[in-house]
Amino acid sequence: MIRPATPADIPALHMLVESAFRGDSARRGWTHEADLLGGQRTDPAALAEAIADPDHAILIAFDGDVAVGCVEVKRAGSGRSALGLLSVRPDRQAEGLGRRLVAAAEDHARAHHGATRMEMTVIATRAELIAWYERQGYCRTGESRPFPMDDPRFGLPRVPLSFIVLDRSIA
Asked: What is the pLDDT of residues 55-98, one digit of tens each?
């Protein structure tokens, strides 16, 4: 089941995101950033802010009572939405849940934002993740954006980082 997260989901959501991106638990999956960044990926306050914002949604997937995945979708203006925070528990990766979460985010963007395009940023050195998104139909736009290197809310970079932008039509 995939549904919009509520404030009651924040503890499970926070644990899920951190386990997918940071620390030794993340290394069990293939999508982690543990070698690139230390510190946190997000915090409960940022999750609460996103859930409360009418231009954002965090969709959360459950297997029974256990949170197994999530994705954030937010209005990006001019018929666009942005996808982010795609997280799948490391022990549940490679089961197709990531594809289902991306599809749910695209459906949400069309239905709630009137979006016809979805964009995202991916750390430029994450070749395997970029290739995965390309297999989902996303294309490199040629645009790059800086990584917030000095903002610990997004993690503590161990190496210089930047983002590339990917997008696709969802019309």
From this structure: 999 999 999 999 999 999 999 988 999 999 999 998 888 889 99
DSSP 3-state of 156: strand
Cα–Cα distance list, 16 to 11, 69, 92, 121, 133 (Å): 9, 7, 11, 20, 21
Q: Report how far apart, in Å, the C-alpha atoms of 130 and of each of 18, 38, 104, 134, 156 are.
A: 20, 21, 19, 6, 21
Sheet holding 80-88, edge to edge: 2-4, 56-63, 66-77, 80-88, 117-123, 162-169, 139-146
Q: What is the pTM of this model?
A: 0.89
Number of other residues whose CB lies within 10 A of the CB of residue 29: 19
Q: What tokens were used for 103?
A: 């599809």
